[in-house]
């Protein structure tokens, strides 16, 4: 059975994060990584899609110290950017 993105999060990713002691206070969901590239063609401006991570795992401290990142997760391609 194929799962949609919301189901993958709810059934596969969220339980694993909770089991690894990641709490809602240190998980940021739908975190915008980039605003999207801007392309200028004469008088015309085009924006490319924003880059959004499904999960940003932080250390839970107040900014700017919280920006130590434990990982960025996508429900389509799960990968950690820091070990």
SSE topology:
Elements: H1 5-19, E1 27-34, E2 38-41, E3 44-47, E4 51-58, E5 69-73
Description:
With 83 residues, the protein is of the alpha+beta class. The chain has 1 helix and 5 strands. A 3-stranded antiparallel beta sheet has the order 1-4-5, with no helix packed on it. Strands 2-3 form a two-stranded antiparallel ribbon. The longest helix is centred in the first third of the chain and has 15 residues, at 5-19.
Order of helices and strands: HEEEEE
Count of distinct strands: 5
Tally the helices.
1
Task: Report low-confidence residues grouped into runs of 5 or more.
Answer: 78-83
Structural key phrases:
alpha+beta, 5 strands, single chain, 3-stranded antiparallel sheet, disordered C terminus, 35% strand
Q: Summary?
A:
By secondary structure, the chain is an alpha+beta fold. It has one helix at 5-19; strands at 27-34, 38-41, 44-47, 51-58, 69-73. It is built from 1 helix and 5 strands, in the order αβββββ.
